Amino acid sequence: MAQRYRRTNVSLSESLRDLLRSAPSLDSPMRDHGNATPVPLDGDSRLPLIRADQLGPAVTPVLAPEIKEQVEQLRSEHQNQERLAKSGLTPSRTALFTGPPGVGKTLAARWLADELKRPLMVLDLSSVMSSFLGRTGSNIRKVLDYAKSSPSVLLLDELDTVAKRRDDAAEVGELKRLVTVLLQEIDDWPASSLLLAATNHGDLLDPAVWRRFDLVVDFPLPGPSELLEALSQYSGNVSQEVLQFLVRTLKGASFADAERMVMSARRRAALNDERLLDSLLRLGQDRLRGMDQANRLQIAVDLVQHGEISQRRASELTGVSRDTIRRRQRDEQQ
After folding, report:
1. What is the mean pLDDT of residues 309-314?
2. pTM (2 decimals)?
């Protein structure tokens, strides 16, 4: 269009060209922040060492209250750098997110970048491992230098891939030197950008790594209230009775597990032309059948005591007889 209007409408043509020059792209994700430099490439494969998150505005993550407070504090520090500067302070430059898979670490990083209006750059550390180990340190330096060049949020995913314990006898010397390179780069990180790292295996990290981060946030598996909020977010207008039942069948599961269940139910409902509620109930009951009698009974009792569900309905959902539920309740009261 810019080419087409070059002769008939010069102003429009130039405006379109300016828009294209300033718009971020996969090759230059920080162009709208004044940095048109392309993302760094691996010297061997010529593939990008970093990718820009292109999933659009992030939904507000469902987090336990203490975790939510820490993440929001991190956001507030970077949104109010001038107020901190008046007191001679700088915002937290780096944060380490630990916890099992599917508990919201990446989603929290995406939400922070969205709140701060900065591009989110994601580095999967396994992708920078060059076939020539001596180049891996160079790859990491190139990525970190690129992220430092403009205000951004950089997420180092699967940090344990690289930052393993240096006393691990199974690791070669080059990888141990790589940990040293990474620690130096973390120490030099500027306050103008935010460096986040995520790991599912904190026990594998070199002890020196923990001390280098300004903030460490340990994401636990969600509790009942967090699962209930997440299921409500994923499934929309589904009755609280059904959601309470699903929460108890998902005990010990992650947010990712809960989302997979809802998405599976949505697909099943669409294919079988049935209500989402019925599909969710069926999947919940499938999970229940995989449990032993003691767990099924406890879920039935919990539904009656905490879910404001009648004994009859709890029996229908769990397959446990009403007499059995009543006896367990009497035993617990005694």
Report:
1. 85
2. 0.79
From the list 178, 154, 149, 158, the residue with the least C-alpha distance to 166 is: 178
CB 190 within 8 A of CB 153: no
pLDDT averaged over every residue in the chain: 83
* Pair 285, 248: CB distance under 8 Å: no
**What residue type is assigned to position 14 of the chain?**
E
SS3 of residue 2 by DSSP? coil
Pick the closest to residue 235 from 272, 283, 273, 271 (CA basis). 283
By the 10 Å C-beta count (0-12 exposed, 13-18 middle, 19+ buried), 250 is classed as buried
C-alpha to C-alpha distance for 275 and 264, rounded to whole angstroms: 13
Q: How many degrees, rounded to 5, is the angle at CA 55 between CA 144 and CA 195?
A: 25
Rounded distance between C-alpha atoms, residue 177 and residue 304, angstroms: 58
Rounded to the nearest 10 degrees, the angle between the axes of helix 255-272 and helix 276-289 is: 120
- Which residue segments constitute the domains of the chain, with CATH numbers given? 25-218 (3.40.50.300), 224-333 (no CATH)
C-alpha to C-alpha distance for 221 and 151, rounded to whole angstroms: 32
Pull the structure tokens for residue 38: 């392309």
Q: What are the backbone angles phi and psi of residue 123, rounded to the nearest 5°?
A: -115, 110
Q: Can you tell me whether residue 95 is helix, strand or coil?
A: strand
The two structure tokens encoding residue 183: 């620690």
What pLDDT, in 10s, does the model give residues 229-251? 999 999 988 888 889 999 999 99
CA distance 285 to 281: 6
* Amino acid making up residue 252: G
Quote the strand ranges of 47-182, DSSP E.
51-52, 94-98, 120-124, 153-157
Task: Residue 123: name the closest of 179, 34, 205, 197 by CA.
Answer: 197
Instruction: Place 278 in a pLDDT band, splitting at 50, 70 and 90.
Output: very high
